[in-house]
Amino acid sequence: MGYSITKVVETLSNDHLRGLGDEVKRASVLMALSAAGIPLGDILQDSAQRQSALAACEVEQRKKFEEYWTRRAEKNPLLQSEMERVTRQYMERMNRNLTGVQQEKDALQKWQTAMQHEVLRISEAVTLCARRLIMPRG
């Protein structure tokens, strides 16, 4: 007749039974089963089988999840190692850049010092030459 614990659950959710007490609902379900010629033992056996199947399914799902989690967790140290390797490479590149900048800065400062020295020498030469022009020869 297609009766199962699922059908009983659907029956108990029916709008006609909503709001009624548990005893009225129980009596209604038992009456429907009796009228359909379905032994209550069959429904209870179906319920036990479904609960057992759900429990087995849960165990299998948990097992799959734990295997998945284990595989993922095993990858984390590899990822950590790769991240540290890449970080070291970038740190080395950054240090080379900073060293290069410092070398260029030092070269600029050396050039500026040499330029200031040259400007001073030119200025002294101009000062000496300009005195000769201003001072009469004689």
| C-alpha termini separation | 141 Å
Strand content: under 5%
**Number of continuous helical runs:** 3
Shape: rod-shaped
Structural class determined from secondary elements: mainly alpha
Radius of gyration: 47 Å
The succession of helices and strands, N to C, reads HHH
Fraction of helical residues: over 70%
Q: Extract low-pLDDT stretches.
A: none
Tally of extended strands?
0
Mean pLDDT: 92
Biggest sheet layout: none
In short:
With 138 residues, the protein is mainly α.
Detail the topology: elements first, then pairings:
Layout lengths: L4 H8 L9 H15 L3 H95 L4
Q: What report would you give on this structure?
A:
The chain has 138 residues and is an all-alpha fold. It has a domain of 96 residues. The chain is 86% helix and 0% strand. The longest helix has 95 residues. The radius of gyration is 47 Å and the shape is rod-shaped.
Keyword list:
86% helix; mainly alpha; 3 helices; 138 residues
